[in-house]
Design a protein that fits this description.
Blueprint: E1 5-6, E2 9-15, E3 38-43, E4 51-57, E5 63-68, E6 77-81, E7 87-88, E8 99-103, E9 109-113, E10 116-121, E11 124-127, E12 137-142, E13 148-152, E14 161-165, E15 173-174, E16 185-190, E17 196-201, E18 207-212, E19 220-222, E20 232-236, E21 242-247, E22 253-259, E23 264-267
Antiparallel strand pairs: 1-2, 2-3, 4-5, 5-6, 6-7, 8-9, 9-10, 10-11, 12-13, 13-14, 14-15, 16-17, 17-18, 18-19, 20-21, 21-22, 22-23
Length: about 280
């Protein structure tokens, strides 16, 4: 599950376990206040930092992210918030560009350090092997079997190439591209069924959300929304439903949900009163 980032804090919103999903009853005389639907917890940045941003959360409520002087600053440090709300800093293998992008239910973390794909397990960091001819990359997600998704070549001359690591000790395996002659893109999310979601691009700049049903599969194109120029897949659940966004020629961006069972692409609209048409 992805969360929203707010300046100077990490915000976690959790639906209260005791809350009723039914419609609220009419008020009665001397009635007790209704139970809250949500509990909000705020987490401060690391000491000396002005900003904290959440990037992923597992089912236990552990939050992965980073803390920095400002959003996506090169001096960003990795952050993990555990189930009890304690804020930890996994050891950064490089002093710059440290972002925890994903985590599994066992507390294994993946992300970026010094522009390279990295994995943290049991408090120890290790760089992932990008394969021959590559240096940089990013590890975006990890599932229960240890499959890792991401990209390699992000800051190399070739640009990001969508890939997976079948295991942390192996080299990256580039996934099939949607467009002929191109494997440009990022594999952003995994589920425990081995499906992979992300974005695949062409040699001329077009990019479309995709889902690979296994690492050797051809990509399934998703979107874009009607009238949009492109689409991106950002997250996915165990049913293969993909959440993402599409951009439009006027600069607007709209979130969408792809429902796997019906192959329906649903535009999710915008917040009422938004000053600018953006959701995603």
């Amino acid at each position: 599950m992805k969360l929203f980032a707010f300046t100077s804090l990490i915000l976690m919103v959790v639906r209260a376990a005791s809350a009723s999903a039914s419609a609220p009853a009419l008020p009665q005389a001397n009635a007790k206040p209704p139970e809250p639907l949500y509990r909000v917890t705020l987490f401060d940045p690391l000491p000396g930092m002005e900003y904290a941003g959440p990037l992923d959360m597992n089912a236990k409520g552990e939050i992965a992210g980073y803390s920095a002087p400002e959003p996506y600053h090169p001096l960003a440090l990795p952050v993990l918030v555990d189930e009890q709300g304690n804020v930890h800093m996994p050891p950064p293998p490089d002093p710059t560009n440290n972002f925890v992008l994903g985590l599994d239910e066992g507390g294994t973390l993946v992300g970026v350090s010094g522009l390279r794909a990295v994995l943290w397990k049991d408090g120890v960091a290790r760089f992932l092997n990008p394969g021959r001819g590559y240096f940089s990359g990013s590890a975006q997600d990890i599932n229960a079997s240890g499959l890792i998704s991401g990209s390699i070549g992000d800051s190399d001359w070739i640009g990001p190439q969508h890939c997976v690591w079948m295991q942390a000790s192996g080299a990256a395996q580039i996934l099939r591209g949607l467009f002929a002659g191109s494997t440009t893109g990022v594999a952003t999310a995994l589920n425990d069924n081995g499906q992979i979601a992300g974005v695949s691009g062409s040699l001329v700049g077009s990019f479309i959300a995709v889902r690979w049903d296994h690492p050797g599969a051809s990509p399934l194109p998703i979107g874009p929304l009607p009238g949009a120029m492109n689409s991106e897949g950002l997250d996915m659940n165990e049913h293969g439903d993909v959440a993402g966004r599409s951009s439009f020629p006027d600069g607007a961006t709209q979130a969408f949900l792809y429902e796997s069972s019906s192959a329906a692409l649903i535009g999710l609209g915008y917040l009422a009163g938004a000053a600018y048409p953006y959701s995603g």
